[in-house]
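Check this.
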Amino acid sequence: MLNIKETVQTYSFEWQFTDGKKIDMQHLLPSHDSLISGDTLKISVSIDGMDPSSFVIKVREDLDIVIQQNEYIDSDSSTIITIEIIKNTTSSINIYNLDIFVKYLESLTLQQLFQVLKDYSVSKEKVLIHFQEFGDVKFSSNLFSTIPSIKDISDSIKKERVENINLVSNTSGITGINLIPEDLKVYESSAELKKLESYFSRISTLLCIAFISDWSEFDNNQLNFKILGYQKIDCSLSSETSIDDDSMFFKIYQWIFESGNGSIEDKLGLSRNIISRYIRYNKTSLFLDKDAYTSIITSYKIYLKENVEKYIETKNKVAELMTEISLKNKDVLNFINSSFKNNNLTILGYFISIFIFNSLSNNDGPVFNLERYYLSLIFLLISTIYFLITAKQLKKDLIENARYFFSIKRIYKDLFSPQDLNRIFDNRQFKYNIKNVKSNANRYLVFWLIEIVLLLFLTIAMTFYIP
């Protein structure tokens, strides 16, 4: 066989005969018998450089038409038989010669490869992959599988992951290709498929690096990326770059995006800092020290511990502020109570002293003369003004307390989740406290007002009506 070629769409090779050698069925049958369901077999015969005669083989008997071309082969003729298999690429990838197929993949630039894979990435199920050379082999990633199955990571999660990374990184190369590292990360593979597994792993690692980096771009056959950590990393990689222990990058990527605890932004920032210290690279190779992953996990635990301590410290501070707000509300009530008592001591003391003075004197006239009447009105007027000032101050203090409460809540909204924020700064509890203060304060104010009115009527009565 000569000129063996295989792509995603086709698989082809040639037989070349000289000295009038005839076409034999043994040259044709293997291709027909190994045809994967859904694919189409096409055979072309060119004799002595003439335009080829092409035949689409649907059933085995159609091969006889090709054999009939022997009638045109002379004793000195040269014959070229081109056998081409046109693959059904709708929902599967059929591979007839794995070595040739892997060479084809390696000949593609990264952008060309991603364009090929993009057509398959929209499928909700894993794309079936058939290996004609081998029998019962296993091969599985998030995108491909030798058996029908649902994707491990749904398209919605994939979309969300890409959107999340776009918020914290400049990743123009990732957005357009609709691929994540898991799509090409091989979880299960038979020994016969080692070459394909190795190739997919390299591409998956490049995607991991793109997701982890501060900036990344796929330019033709290169991944250009930057990591801005403790040190600045500015590097370019190709699909041929040797990456020592590529599983390390995937472990870090998986921890960042798949583990539930912590924010992606925090884990990305910490990972970039550590990676910038442990990564080594040149034009042909990339190396990440095996201690990088352990260092990231350890650093994150320390980071969480510090955050927990800060969180507890912040909550204690907030608790102090809430206590302060409660005390402010209590002070408002104490102010009303104190004002009411002071007013009583003054007004009631004045009126009681008049009655005592009048009872000790021998005066048979009214308890209140005009002089005492006007003096009493002045005291009641002062009490009324004091009442109005106290009521206005009550309203002002309650408004200031409410503003203080909500301003503190706004300050801490970036430090707590909405649930924690609403639990700590409970609007219902605060409104209940305000309502309770108002209720008690209004009770004092009502008594105060009733007291003024009663004393006014008493003053008038004792002056003009009661001798």
In short: The chain has three domains: 2-88, 93-289, 312-464.
